[in-house]
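Here we describe the complex-level prediction in full. Unlike the single-chain runs in Section 2.1, the four entities below were treated as one system.
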Amino acid sequence: MNFVGLFNYWIVMVLMMIGFYIVIAQGNLVKKLVGLTLFQTSVFIMYITMGKIEGATAPILVEGEALYSNPLPHVLILTAIVVGIATTALGLALVVRIKESYDSIEEDEINRKDQEC
Amino acid sequence: MYTAAAFAVLVAMLLALFRAFAGPTLYDRILAVNVFGTKTVLLIAVVGFMMGRPDFLDIVMVYALMNFISVIGILRFFEYTAKNVEVREE
Amino acid sequence: MELIINMGLLSMLAMTAIAIVRIKDLFAVAMLAGIYGLISASFFVMMDAVDVAFTEASVGAGISTLLMLTTLAITGRFEKADKKSRTRFALPLVLLTGALLIYGTLDMPSFGAADSPVQEHVAPRYLNDSAQEIGIPNVVTSVLASYRAFDTFGEVIVIFTAGVGVLALLMRTDLPPISSVKNTASMEEHMVLRIVAKMLIPLILLFGLYVQFHGEYGPGGGFQAGVIFASAFFLYAMLYGMNAARKVIDSSLVQVLAALGVLIYGTTGVVAMLSGKNFLDYSVFSEDPVHAQHLGILFIELGVGLTVATVMIIIFFTFSGRSQVEGERD
Amino acid sequence: MEGILNIVSWFLLVFGGFLCISGAVGLLRFPDFFTRMHAASVTDTLATAMILIGLFIQAESWLVQVKLVMVLLFVLLTSPTAGHALVMAALHAGLEPVLPKQKQASVEAGR
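The structure predicted for the assembly as a whole is:
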């Protein structure tokens, strides 16, 4: 088995699953958003890993370098990071509103209060 | 020798990470975050030289800046919210 | 050696993620998320993605930690223990999915291979031709701002919309006028911090401008510059209190500027259309095609920087304003 | 000349690396927050200065050297400030150092 060649992808999958676990198993809404961030970052790492070429250098052209890593994943991920923080902020804003109307950010308590009404 | 320095910084990062996991007080964690940030600054600087592209020191600057800002932020919000909260966790 | 650093950083990422699962103190979780951002940004530097590392360092380690903490100031610090029933269901599901995904990776091209499918389509064209067509050394910027500028336009609008959404959810119109409130800066006792910050803020703003306009030649550009620019204002607001910051930055002006950034970007495209070219075809700006590309990239990076900076300021100030109101109510 | 500079920078880099590790060991092993703070902040500043100066000697273009000096100044300005703020916050929050038994007794007697 190609350990060195696939190690990055395995870590990506582990991180992805940890994020997934937090989202489905833990009830606190802020923690869920942290889990989403973990998941998101694992995808970033996967893209960037794919763009890397052994022995290449960063895609900013200089004299005397012939081999550059793939710039396209960098562009996609760069914008994705900023969009990610914007959407996380939106999620956190929703959490604040939920806290104000339910006085709790635990999923179970919110569900229970919903059923009581 | 870049290799030696980079490796040493990496080990230091690992140790700081363990302190961040262990706590026990929140201030220990903040300290660990701060140390970790400074070590990242060093790592990126050394790695830039190691890979032969030392003109990326702009990134190092951002790391130093963000490290400072996040420590200030943590302190501010901690003081702001936790005036009456126990220092020790749990 | 680079391989060892890579693996070390990745293992640290995994350890941090596991610690995040286990720790119930959400303040500590926010801090670990900050560390997670720092590590992944260092990893991006190792993978030659300097622009991405730039963005992740400022966003993942800086801004998102601050936002989490501001939220926690309102929602409370501790999390309830996990429910047994739920973990019993979740753990096997996660393990199964993970095993399937890892089985899937066995067919992936090996890390760093120069002949993997990703490298063989459009990337060689960008790398070989962008020097003649666009004339700037940073290929990431030329792809971002010229080849795929329409895509970036979409991203900018998403960011703008998120800012509008946060405002719609959290804005208070009933905030008392500035002069009537006592300045409730919680860091009044930190004299040293305040003086150092006073020295740093102009430098940070200058650095932000450098990143904005040097993005064609080195790592950087509108996205990163916007975040750095905004962070100077965050520093001011954190150390001198929200009221002082509200005096410096008029919130309605910031909202107008956020829209203006999108407008600059869109206008650049529409001008090209009105001159009979395609949307965002920069060749209308000048006779010399390379010069025209330079001008076009300058305009849209300006739009991006403006929108990102102002949206970040809007988000942070709206959150902090909310927590300030909450604090006074208690 | 070249050779001497190389040796100096080699020494600075390696010794800076050593200081990093020793500070981190202190951060991990010391008994309470204040001693950990001491270990971390003292070595942090020195190690950063040493490594950055070592790189400064190796740098080939003046632009890189200017940037290194900027980073060094920035770190020298912010790192002690953050440390100061942190300790002050901890003291205000009522965190107390762990003292040896006799000292603890004398402190309590003094109250």
